Structure formats: C-alpha cells, structure tokens
C-alpha cells in the first residue's frame, strides 16, 4: 500500500478506520472488475468518508419495542474487575459503533434497530457431548448474570470503558459439555441481508465469525455480554449476545452471536479472512506492536478529550499473560 505510516495520534479519524476506508476501497477496486458492483461504489465511498461524530444521540431511548429480557437488569456488579479511568458516557458507547452488518461508518445505531431479537435461537454444536439449540430467554435464565466494568480497545486506536452485564463464557462452555478433542470455540453472527444491508456487500465474508482457544474461552475474563449500563444490550452494541474479551482488540468481540461451535480446527475470523497481514487470530493488545498502517502506542478515549497510553493485554496481563506461555512463536499481537 502507498499509505504512509504515521503515528496513530496524527491520523485523522477516518484514516485510522481500517475496517472501512482501506478495505472497502481495495475490495471495491477488485469487485469493480466484475462490473455490476460499480453501481454501489459512490454510495460506499461516501459512507466511508462520513464524519464519525454522531449528530443524534441514542442512549436508552432507542429501544422502541420493549426487550423481553428487560426485567433481568440491572444485575449485581462483580467488583473484581476495576477500571483505571472514567466510564464512557452511555450516549457515546451506544452511538459510535462498529457493526459492519449495518454499514461501515460508525453511525449505524439507527439502522441496527431493524434487527429482530425474538425469536433468537442459539446453536451449540460441533465437538460436544450432545449438540442442541436453545432460545435466548431460556439461555439467559440458566446463566449467572453479573455486571463487569471492562476496558475495550479497538484496533483502530479508540477505546471505551463500559459496564457490561452478562455471564462468563465458561458458564456456556460448561453447559455445552465439549469433548476433550475440542481445541477452539468458533462463534458465528446472524446472517440476514434483508435486515442487515451491509451483508449485501459481497466482498465481505459473511457471516461475521470469530474464534478463541478453549483455554481463552474458559479464562475468567471471557464474558458474554447481554446488557450494558444496567439495561438490555442495545442492538447496535450486539444484542442479544456479544462477546467481550477485553485483553484483545475489539474486532474479536463478535456481536449478534447465533452459534457456538466447538472444533479441532482454528477458526479463520472475518477480518483475518479479509486481510490476514493486519488482523490475526490472536489479536492481543500490545502497544509495542504497531498495526502495519499506524501505531498502537496510545488510544483516543471515546467521550473524553484526551489520549491514554495503551497497555500490554489492555491492562489485563495478570489474568491472561499465562495463556500465551510457550506460544511466543505465534503472532500473538496482531
Ligand atoms: N458481528 C459483528 N461484530 C463485531 C463487529 C462487526 O462489524 N460485526 N465489529 C467489531 C469491532 S471492530 C469492534 S471495535 C466492536 C465494537 O463494539 P461496540 O460498537 O459495542 O463498541 O465490535 C466488534 N464486533
Ligand atoms: Mo474494532
């Protein structure tokens, strides 16, 4: 690429938006050869160049239809997980989003309201004692809900700090009863181009997929978030189920999950399939390993006027560093 590598804080926001600007243009050029796709080009490029600052504010007011899980919240906070900074204002965390199913700009929260949340069936299969399906409300009733304050660090060098509600991923793994041969957990997002128009873009490998090793998935930090700010999860933030793995870059935290599959084969995730030289399987946060196109040394704090230095494992080394002993030959930090 001819894009000059600059330090992250010198980048205009739109330039540090790898999941949009770069790939859409590149894939567009590729796809343009095919002809008909060209029709989509002007609209797409406009969307990519859109100023990220939202004009409208969502907050809790967005949930027009009542969420059937609303009575479950708020849940008790687990004080083991502490922040080193202020919480991000709810209005920022709920209106500045990455959710490519609904478009490649940050301002998709209104479009995401088109996603129906019921019925929502979760498939648990692959290398398990007995594959099964379970409705979201039945699953929520079985899981130990709690609130956790976690940092979130996007690979684009912005960050937030939010109170998630949800349950440890380990509780779901235990429910699934994986076989000893399972080495990875693959998570798959819903696929419905009729409601998620972003999924009509054929140059993305839909549906969105992500994966963890079983050791990562059963680490105490790995969390399935079902709510935020003491309320059910807004659609734009990944309702009804989204992963939160705060020591990894944000793209690992798949939203709108419908399937948990246990497998022997390392899953190839959405962004890895698009550009494996920039987005790998491990994607652990490390300020000393720059993205090929920008620095990861610091982060822009959403809803604040300052940057902070990024920390190794996003500050969660005490919980997770152990997981990577003996894996030093792997590309752990991209
Ligand atoms: N299904 C799906 N999950 C996704 C994404 C996406 O585009 N689709 N984007 C990821 C990225 S890059 C980030 S930074 C976080 C953003 O979560 P937030 O919008 O709740 O802040 O969601 C992640 N999960
Ligand atoms: Mo991200």
What do these coordinates show?
The chain has 334 residues and is an alpha+beta fold. The protein has one domain: Oxidoreductase, molybdopterin-binding domain (Sulfite Oxidase, Chain A, domain 2), CATH 3.90.420. It is built from eight helices and twelve strands. The chain has helices at 21-32, 41-49, 90-93, 136-142, 169-176, 214-217, 270-274, 317-320; strands at 121-126, 132-135, 146-153, 158-168, 184-189, 209-213, 223-228, 231-232, 242-244, 257-263, 298-301, 307-309. The two termini are 18 Å apart. The model is unreliable at 1-16 and 31-63 (pLDDT under 50). Bound molecules: the ligand Nc1nc2c(c(=O)[nH]1)N[C@H]1C(S)=C(S)[C@@H](COP(=O)(O)O)O[C@H]1N2 and molybdenum atom (MO). Molybdenum atom binds next to loops. The site of molybdenum atom has 6 residues, from loops.
Q: Characteristics of this structure?
A:
single chain; 334 residues; alpha+beta; Sulfite Oxidase, Chain A, domain 2; seven-stranded mixed β-sheet; five-stranded mixed β-sheet; 16% helix; disordered N terminus; binds ligand MTE; binds molybdenum atom
Q: Please outline the major beta sheet.
A: 7 strands, mixed
H/E element order: HHHEEHEEHEEHEEEEHEEH
Query: Which fold does the CATH topology refer to?
Result: Sulfite Oxidase, Chain A, domain 2
Structural class computed from helices and strand pairing: alpha+beta
CATH level-4 homologous superfamily = Oxidoreductase, molybdopterin-binding domain
Give the class-level CATH name: Alpha Beta
Count of strand segments: 12
The CATH architecture designation is: Alpha-Beta Complex
Helix content: 10-25%
């Amino acid at each position: 690429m001819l894009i000059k590598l600059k330090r992250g804080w010198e980048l205009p926001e739109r330039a540090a938006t790898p999941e949009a600007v770069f790939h859409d243009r590149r894939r567009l050029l590729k796809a343009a050869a095919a002809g008909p796709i060209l029709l989509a080009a002007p609209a797409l490029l406009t969307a990519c160049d859109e100023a990220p600052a939202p004009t409208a504010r969502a907050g809790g007011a967005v949930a027009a239809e009542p969420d059937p899980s609303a009575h479950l919240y708020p849940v008790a906070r687990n004080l083991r997980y502490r922040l080193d900074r202020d919480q991000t204002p709810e209005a920022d965390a709920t209106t500045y989003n990455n959710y490519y199913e609904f478009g490649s700009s940050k301002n998709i929260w209104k479009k995401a309201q088109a996603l129906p949340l019921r019925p929502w069936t979760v498939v648990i299969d692959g290398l398990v004692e007995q594959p099964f399906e379970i409705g979201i409300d039945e699953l929520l009733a079985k899981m130990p809900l709690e609130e956790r304050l976690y940092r979130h660090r996007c690979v684009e060098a912005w960050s937030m700090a939010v109170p998630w509600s949800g349950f440890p991923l380990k509780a779901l793994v235990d429910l699934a009863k994986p076989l000893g041969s399972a080495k990875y957990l693959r998570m798959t997002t819903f696929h419905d181009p009729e409601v998620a128009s972003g999924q009509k873009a054929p140059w993305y490998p839909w549906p969105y997929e992500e994966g963890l090793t079983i050791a990562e998935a059963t680490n105490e930090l790995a969390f399935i978030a079902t709510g935020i700010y003491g309320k059910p999860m807004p659609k734009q933030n990944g309702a009804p189920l989204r992963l939160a793995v705060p020591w990894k870059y944000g793209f690992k935290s798949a939203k709108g999950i419908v399937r948990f599959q246990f497998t022997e084969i390392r899953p190839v995730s959405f962004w890895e399939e698009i550009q494996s030289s920039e987005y790998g399987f491990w994607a652990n946060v490390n300020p000393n390993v720059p993205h090929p196109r920008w620095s990861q040394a610091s982060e822009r704090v959403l809803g604040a006027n300052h940057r902070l230095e990024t920390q190794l494992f996003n500050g969660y080394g005490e919980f997770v560093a152990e997981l990577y002993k003996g894996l030093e030959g792997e590309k752990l930090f991209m």
